[in-house]
Amino acid sequence: MEQDEEDEVHDIREQMFHNTVREHIIFMLLFLLLYLGSYALIMRFRRRDRADLYSNDEDEITVYRISLWLCTFSLAVAVGAALLLPISIASNEVLILYPNSYYVKWLNSSLIQGLWNYVFLFSNLALFVLLPFAYLFTESTGFSGHKKGIMARVYETFTVFSLVAFIVLSTTYVISVLRDPDRNIFQALFNVARYHLPFLYSCVSFLGVLLLLVCTPMGFVRLFGVVGQVLVKPNLLRDVNEEFHAFNIEEATVKRKLANVNLNIELRNMTTIDLTPAKLCSGLDDLYQIKNTDDGTTSESAKLFERLRELESERKVLEKQRSSSALQRNLVYPIAMLLLLILTGITVLLVVQNTLELLIGIKAVPLSTRQFTLGITSLSKLGPLGATLEVCIITYLGVTSAVGLYTMPFMRNVRPRRRKTSLTQLIFNCGLVLILSSALPLLARILGITNFDLLGDFGEIEWLGNFMIVLMYNVVFGTAATLCLFNKFTATVRRELCARLRALFNYSSHFESSIYQTAGNLNHLHSNHPLSAGGHHQQTQEQQNGQGPPTMAMTCIENHITVPTAVSSQQ
Questions:
Q1: Does 222 reside within a domain?
Q2: CA distance 346 to 393
Q3: Based on the domain organization, do 353 and 425 belong to the same domain?
Q4: Which of 43, 334, 366, 451 could form a disulfide with 445 if both were Cys (CB 3.0 to 4.6 A apart)?
Q5: CA distance 320 to 243
């Protein structure tokens, strides 16, 4: 009997060991996949010149590679954080559909819980340790007076990083004492891993959620423009071939004019100047005349060059439209626009529904207070279809937030460009993407996109339990998204109406001013006419008595006659 119990305990421990090994193997494979994808993405954008990679200095090569590896690790963690909710929702539905399948036995609550814990840990590590270290490492030169080398730069980086970490942790400690005076301050002082870092991450996640509040509604609008630039629009009532040939002819004409202007400038510069006194400029007028001629030629050349660039870009667009198929033009573009409109509308409706449920009291704040078990019940009333829709909306929110962030004006200088992004810009962009992706699960849970609880330390962020913050966030997000969409789809109509009203107002004011100006001219002509000199006093007396005929100005205003007609009638 005792032997059987020992065998059973041994089997349980062995099963737990195998489950742990299997989970860590899955984590390692998933991380390698994300790391390779992030490395390929960074290689696409990083700059490949000597400004970033000094081929003759081994220390610079080592520093560059280490910083690049840290950036790649951080970007992989960011992508993993963005995929947390979609993977968890899909895993729950798969376990509900196939509860007894042999091929999904590895998918369980322990695996998903461990994935959330690792992402939270690596997010803190990348955001507060790896990315600052990578930036300081690339900017370091070594302490003065020490031997130059890689170790001198490592010592300088660790020293500066320690000072910055001390300042940040001290600030966090002061804020925590002011926020919660009843907490044991000496216990919290040395509890960095369990108190300071989660509190810092809570502050950063709150900033990320606020950034998403600005970027996501803007991304709803900007994504329509991005899709319109990538896909080929339908050619309604247009002859693309005729326009293409017309642009080719105009482009050739502009090139010929530009060549002639450049040739004239070169000939003028090559002309020998005669410095005899008789042929020198006689005064400042000649100098100004020569200067104005040169400026006119230069401005004409600049205008032609600008027009040539516009023609080349328009010709490329027309060439793309010519090479595209009719199916791509007439089917793909309308379907893409319709999908974007449907996803945006569903998102706004879900936000409105979540706001009403919060006000009524049906739904609680998204702070996690219980342990979630995977595969028990579906999180959506529509079952697998609703779960698929939730995954699509969460992915759509991530894409729109990225588009909205990188199309903002203040991101113009740090926006990554293909093969032109420096290492410092890569570090900054990886930090931004990590902040946004870490806040994406919080955004989806706050807006009520899904009912999946935030697992691990994500669900213990304190400000998620504040009802007013959650409610106001829903109200502001729904209002901003609605206003952005309304402005997007009514901007053209409003501009046209304003232009028509402005033109009508200008026309009416111009018409009235022309009438009064014509009347004044007629009165002036009538007063200076020779036939009206003798009877001027009598006409004035009759007009005062109300018996005489009206003046020409009054007749013109009443009958809207023109000047030549009035003059001929007087004569």
A1: no
A2: 8
A3: yes
A4: 366
A5: 13
- Between 27 and 373, residue with greater pLDDT: 27
Written as one string, the DSSP assignment of 321-386 is: HHHS-HHIIIIIHHHHHHHHHHHHHHHHHHHHHHHHHHHHTSS--S---S---TTSS-SSTTTHHH
Cα separation, 400 vs 220, in Å, equals: 6
What's the mean pLDDT in 398-427?
Answer: 86
Residue 287 has pLDDT above 50, yes or no: no
- The one-character DSSP state at 149 is S
Spatial distance between the Cα atoms of 391 and 86, rounded to a whole number of angstroms: 5
Could you give the CA distance from residue 295 to residue 330 in angstroms, rounded to a whole number?
48
Distance from C-alpha of 86 to C-alpha of 441, rounded to nearest angstrom: 9
Cβ atoms of residues 222 and 407 within 8 Å? yes
pLDDT for position 263: 65
Say if residues 435 and 203 touch (Cβ distance below 8 Å). Answer: no
Note whether 115 and 53 are same-domain residues: yes
- 317 shares its domain with 352: no
Residues contacting 368, CB < 8 A, separation 6+: 453, 454, 455, 458, 459, 460
- The whole domain housing 266 covers 240-323
- Residue 405 and residue 350 in one domain: yes
Residue carrying the six token digits 């998933």: 30
Q: Could you tell me if residue 299 is inside a domain? A: yes
Q: Report residue 72's pLDDT band, with 50, 70 and 90 as the boundaries.
A: very high
Torsion of CA 178, 184, 190, 195, to 10 degrees: -70
